[in-house]
Amino acid sequence: MIAKSLFRCAGVLALFSSAQLSAAPAAQCLTETDVHGLVAYMLPSLTETVVERCAARLPANSYLNTRGNGLVSQLRQGQSAAWPSARDAMVKMAGKDDDSSAMFRSMPESVVGPMMEDMVTDKVGNDIKAQNCKDIDRVLSTMAPMPVSNLVDMVTAVAMIAGRDGKKFQTCAAV
User: Fold this and answer.
1) pTM for this entry
2) Is 61 helix (H, G, I), strand (E, B) or coil?
3) Any idea what DSSP says for residue 24?
């Protein structure tokens, strides 16, 4: 249940199950670097969406209402550095051919990044159920003492494990 709440909170699975991105073929499995890049790049916007959607559903003294925006700010600090890996993962997930991949890779983050963030945060926002806000708040408040980098690493590890079945996305075998 906690892992499911964590995914809801982080929105990572929404990215992988988005209707506009198809599952990567086995030859295009997502490496840990790919997944880490996606998590680090998308988590700030996804967390911001969770904070916005849950604010009215939680007490004023809840973690998300008192520290959620601070968490988003901390997560944003690593977002730009994660872009190259996130972009590579998006190309793999979309199953682009070589010409499309080259074009996508050459496009600046300022164009593609916000488009991907909007698509994913819209999907996540629609998936957040009122009854999950308390669980999300509890999970994040429990993890609050950890450095933000540990949160990104933990979500990455959970996504790598979830990707082993290849139903929504495929992660490469651990070495």
Assistant:
1) 0.78
2) coil
3) P
